[in-house]
Write a structure and sequence with these properties.
Blueprint (H helix, E strand, L loop, with lengths): L5 E5 L3 H12 L3 E5 L15 E2 L3 H5 L4 E4 L4 H11 L8 E4 L8 H10 L3 E4 L2 E2 L2 H5 L3 E6 L5 H11 E8 L6 H29 L4 H8 L7 H11 L10 H17 L5 H18 L21
Parallel strand pairs: 1-2, 1-4, 2-3, 4-5, 5-6, 8-9
Antiparallel strand pairs: 7-8
């Protein structure tokens, strides 16, 4: 038996499954739920209990962790959990939900007596699987003794951005970080596409920037996925990247800032998705530079 609190993980996609698995390894009593049950069932082998409904998953849990597609999905699932959410339960909201819904999420928490933590994470499949995510967190001092061990199990460090989860300071920082990640991803794809269009060997590009300020491990890693045709399984899917890019644009508009690169990136991801690359790694935005899904290969 463990003296660690019961943690309910709602959403076991790429990130949620990895986080749940690491919580199991850390000795937590873990319950998991996913709309498509087949995505949650493999976690039973790691010791998690697979629930049929969100209400079943959260009943009696000390900490509820949400890692779903977007803010609307989070609200829908928490409403399904409904009366099973007991007052005093800590809610770690890790979904990248943007800032427009933060007040509504925090309002739901208040209505149900939940202790709300705005806690998006930085990282993709590999750091999630290794328990090396960076957790960006905002929430009250009281209650952190319950949620900090959970963050420690899924991440390498936790960066506290404030004491009011409803203010969305962690989500705001996450959008700033993601704006950079998505811009670099889109730029890497365009550089490779231009090289192909001009008949330039991409290696020549990598050679001239090697070791300089324009060289970066991320550029090489994302480029390799395209050049080697290893876009599946995704570390961060095209469809999710499009969603995040649109959240970034919306946040910019709310703050009176025009974000041309983020807006263009959202359209590139949308085109790649329409070509059949929605579930591939976001590096597949490369194909948006060409007319069809088969273009640009090789």
């Amino acid at each position: 038996m463990t003296d660690k609190p019961t943690v309910s993980v709602l959403g076991t996609g790429i990130m949620g499954a990895a986080m749940a698995r690491n919580l199991c390894r850390a000795g937590f009593d873990v319950r998991v739920w996913n709309r498509t049950r087949a995505k949650a069932e493999p976690l039973a082998a790691d010791g998690a209990r697979v629930a049929d409904t969100p209400a079943e998953a959260v009943e009696g849990a000390a900490v509820v962790l949400t890692m779903l597609y977007d803010g609307a999905s989070v609200l829908e699932v928490l409403r399904e959990a409904g009366a099973a959410l007991r007052p005093g339960t800590v809610w770690a909201q890790c979904t990248t939900a943007g800032i427009d819904l933060i007040e509504e999420l925090a309002g739901f928490a208040r209505e149900h007596g939940l202790v709300f933590y705005d806690a998006p994470v930085l990282g993709t499949r590999q750091p999630a699987e290794a328990g090396r995510l960076t957790v960006l967190a905002a929430g009250p001092e009281e209650g952190r003794e319950k949620v900090t061990p959970v963050f420690d199990a899924v991440g390498a460090r936790t960066v506290w951005t404030g004491a009011d989860g409803g203010a969305g300071s962690a989500s705001r920082l996450k959008l700033v970080a993601n704006s950079w990640v998505l811009a670099v991803t889109a730029a890497a794809g365009e550089a490779l596409a231009l090289a192909k269009g001009l008949g330039v060997d991409p290696q020549g590009f990598f050679d001239i920037i090697e070791g300089g300020p324009l060289d970066m491990e991320y550029l090489r890693a994302k480029s390799a996925l395209v050049l080697d045709g290893k876009l599946s399984p995704a570390s961060f899917a095209v469809a999710t990247a499009e969603k995040d890019a649109r959240l970034i644009v919306q946040a910019g508009e709310r703050g009176g800032v025009r974000l041309d690169v983020a807006a263009a990136s959202a359209e590139r991801f949308a085109r790649a998705a329409a070509q059949g690359h929605a579930d591939e790694d976001m590096a597949a935005a490369y194909f948006a530079s060409f007319g069809g899904s088969a273009e640009g290969r090789g």
